[in-house]
Amino acid sequence: GEAGSAGPVLEEQRVSRLKASIRNYSNPPSPFGNEETSIGRERGVGRAIRHRSPDMYKRILVPYDGSAPSRAGLREAVDLAADSGATLVVLHVVSELPLLMGGEAYVNYGELADLLMTAGQGLAQEAAAVADKACVKVETKVVDGGATAVCDVILDQVAAQRCDLVAMGTHG
To answer: How far apart are CA 96 and CA 21, in angstroms?
Structure first.
């Protein structure tokens, strides 16, 4: 009856607010009075570049695994760090979770962990080179997350590295 009719109305209102916030995302109001906005072109896509106060962010964590989404997150993180003068902290998490779900084949986990750590260090250095090219201060961190979920390792590293912003792709 009547109690169930409020559900669709509330859901419609929620969807309407979400759509409005998505539309506003392309040109959000500035909380800073001294912010300048200019339009830049990158790979054929228009994007607003904001010049923020130098103290807005001190340390920006960017999880990076070399995938396309993590490369997109890295580009955004580098832009934010360049605009704010922040230090970029590139994080690569080596996770054993996919290995634990594998088949019954024999795997020398010690050797595999060493290989994954070495590969992770290479990926972190690849990301650091992008930041260096943009003249952004950068640190790298490669963490063996063991059987801990990667998202939990990232959250732990936000605190451990004293970061005040995480910039990342949708996954990766």
So the answer is: 38
